[in-house]
Design brief:
single chain; mainly beta; three-stranded antiparallel beta sheet; 3 strands; about 0% helix
Length: about 100
C-alpha cells in the first residue's frame, strides 16, 4: 500500500513500485523468502522523501518491521487461505 505524492502508477522493483518515491509504503509481505540475512518481517514501513534510492538492508539491525500471522502456510492448521486479513491505517496531519 503506497501513500505517495505521485498521482499515477509507475512500475518498479520495490514491491511493484519505484525505488525513489516521496511518501510512505506499507508492505504486507505474503511470501516468506529466505533472503541473505535470514530475517523476514511480515509488515514493513518504508519512508522516503524522494531524495534517496531505496536499497535492500545489508545488516540485520537495518531490518525494521513486525511479524504477523496473515500468511498462508501448508503446515499450519490454524490458518486458511479462505480467512481474510484487515489493516486499519489512520493518517492525521503528519502522523
Amino acid at each position: 500500500m503506497w501513500f505517495i505524492d505521485q498521482s499515477y502508477y509507475l512500475e518498479g522493483n520495490l514491491h511493484g513500485s519505484q525505488t525513489e518515491f516521496n511518501g510512505i509504503g506499507i508492505i504486507f509481505d505474503t511470501y516468506k523468502n529466505l533472503d541473505k540475512l535470514h530475517v523476514h518481517k511480515d509488515i514493513s514501513v518504508l519512508v522516503n522523501k524522494g531524495d534517496k534510492d531505496w536499497k535492500p538492508p545489508t545488516k540485520v539491525s537495518e531490518i525494521i518491521g513486525c511479524d504477523a500471522n496473515f500468511r498462508f502456510h501448508n503446515e499450519r492448521g490454524d490458518f486458511s487461505v479462505t480467512d481474510a486479513s484487515r489493516a486499519k491505517i489512520t493518517v492525521s496531519r503528519d502522523r
